[in-house]
Amino acid sequence: MTVEQIAKDFGVHPMTLFKWLRQADVDAGTRPGVSGSESAELREARKRIRLLEQENEVLRRAAAYLSQANLPGKGSTRS
Question: Could you tell me the CA-to-CA distances from 68 to 7, 20, 58, 62, 76 in Å, in that order?
Answer without folding.
Answer: 64, 56, 15, 10, 10
